[in-house]
Amino acid sequence: MNESMRINKYLSACGFCSRREADRLLEEGRVTVDGGIAGTGDRVCAGQDVRVDGTIVRNSEERIVIAFHKPEGVVCTSSKKDKNNIIDYLNFDKRIYPVGRLDKDSTGLILLTNDGELTDRILRGRNGHEKEYVVRVNKPMKNEIVRAMEQGVPILGTMTRPCRIELLNSHTLRMVLTQGLNRQIRRMCEYFGYRVVTLKRVRIMNIELGSLPKGKWRTVTEEELRELEKSLKGQKFYNERIGTDQETD
Question: What is the spatial distance between Cα 51 and Cα 35, in angstroms, rounded to a whole number?
Answer without folding.
Answer: 8
